[in-house]
Amino acid sequence: MGLWIIIGHAILELGIIILLLLGFSFILKNIIVIRIIGIVGGLILVFFGLSIVRDVYFGNIPADFLNSPDMQNHEAASSISRGLENPVIGGIMVSMSNPYWWVWWATIGLAFMIQFDISFMQWPKLVAFYLGHEAGDLIWYLIVSTLSFFGLRHLNKKAYYGILVFCAIFMIIFGIYLGISPFFHDGM
User: 97-135: buried (b, 16+ CB within 10 Å) or exposed (e) per residue?
Assistant: First the structure.
């Protein structure tokens, strides 16, 4: 599952790199755009966090996979076939909803591209930059998804729900922070 999510993330990053090379960077440096990204991304994170807390409270989150690896594979296969729950689309949506992803590309990512003279004219550098960046993402997130997969086998339902609620509360707090933090800065 982690590989598919990273593919979605990589597709989105290819798009942002192309847009930056076409001159899109001035838009991401506009404080109004940063504030809109912060508010929208923050609201999405708060919504997701509240949804998780609500679903745990009402028992709408299945935990059958904690005891049965076969059930997990069946659920993963069926969720891939459902349109909006596609992990590639999920990888795109999660990346887009993270305001710091946009800020990273508007600052650090763009600075790397300028520093290493990444352009369409220097396409071998462009390919190396993109593949190198995605290889780093792939390694990190495969480690995270593998540890998550094997770690779930050793959790009981109560611990699993506790972790979900903890992460949801963190997501809500982080969403609020991301929504208001762009208003404490005058510009980029």
Answer: bbbebbbebbeebbeebeeeebeeeeeeebeebbeeebe
pLDDT digits (tens, 9 = 90+) for 126-144: 999 999 999 998 998 888 8
Q: What is the dihedral of CA 55, 10, 135, 25, to 10 degrees?
A: -110
Between the two ends of the chain, the Cα-to-Cα distance in Å is 36
Q: Cβ(105)–Cβ(16) under 8 Å?
A: yes
Q: Which residues contact 21 (CB under 8 A, 6 or more apart)?
A: 113, 118, 119, 120, 126
> What's the full length of the chain, in residues?
188
Residue 72 is which amino acid?
A: Q
The alpha-helical segments, DSSP class H, found in the chain are: 2-21, 25-28, 31-57, 69-81, 87-97, 99-104, 110-115, 123-152, 157-180
| Predicted model pTM | 0.64
> 6 is written with which tokens?
């990273």
Judge whether residue 71 has pLDDT over 60: no
